[in-house]
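Working notes for the structural subgroup meeting. M.R. asked for a predicted model of this chain before we commit to crystallization trials. I am recording the input and output together here so anyone reviewing the notebook later can reproduce the run.

Input as submitted:
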Amino acid sequence: MLGPVILAASRSDRMRRLISAAPVTKQVVDRFIPGEDVDDIVPVVRELADHGLELTMDVVGEDITNPAQAAAARDAYLELVDRLKPLELGTRAEMSVKLSMFGQALEGGHELALSNVRPVVEAAAEIGTTVTLDAEDHTTLDSMFAIHEELRKDFPQTGCVIQAYLFRTEADARRLAESGSRVRLVKGAYKEPASVAYQDKHEIDRAYVRILRTLMQGEGYPMIGSHDPRLIAIGQELAHQAGRKLDEYEFQMLYGIRTDEHLRLAAEGHRMRVYTAYGTDWYGYFMRRLAEKPANLRFFARSMLTKG
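Returned structure, recorded in token form:
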């Protein structure tokens, strides 16, 4: 089981320095993170939109240690909104945010994160789009869901993410489906203890299907976050069984992974949204992408051996 080892490495300053210094790292990281600033990312947005794809944009970075850094993260998203406005893409280009970037882990972090994320949600609404709150480790979720509920009072299209590997998620999904929320379902990419999360891949897959059925049968808008061909096919079948039209749910995949599948789903008329991250603080995001899928790790290892 390499995933937990990689996730542990994602929190290691020593591994961060080692991997960041490897000559091949930038080439490999560019597969998953197509730019370091908003000037890099705007052409990517245009290109994906021209191919019939939708986007959710993530300014990467989670190691916030003071309120000034949290405010800077807020301002980075506000700059992104300003640059998206003239593209007039509406909900075809939304944003994903991690509340840890907005100060959630600091003293008074719940209120600080809410006060920082609200202007981003307001600005997004002004250009006709919305924001999804990403899920992080299980200790942060009660705060995330409370902020989600508060934001939805004024901005009901605000979305959130739930993680299939957590025991609590089936109950969370029932509550969110009844409330008509926009919900992205993912397997989960943080190292969680056996006391709160399934550890076996097959158990996680079975939980994913159960939760997705709940979302499809509910009143909300399901967002299927998976690259697994079997789960994608199951998602299509569950949507059909629930009588959902093609615009009443969507698929989401990461930039740089299964690009041909992005285009295939879009060509079939599905809403296909590409999770597109950018920024200089890429290390934690990149390591979780390696942990999620063995093929990603093999790609990186081959590159290190052949290009280093």
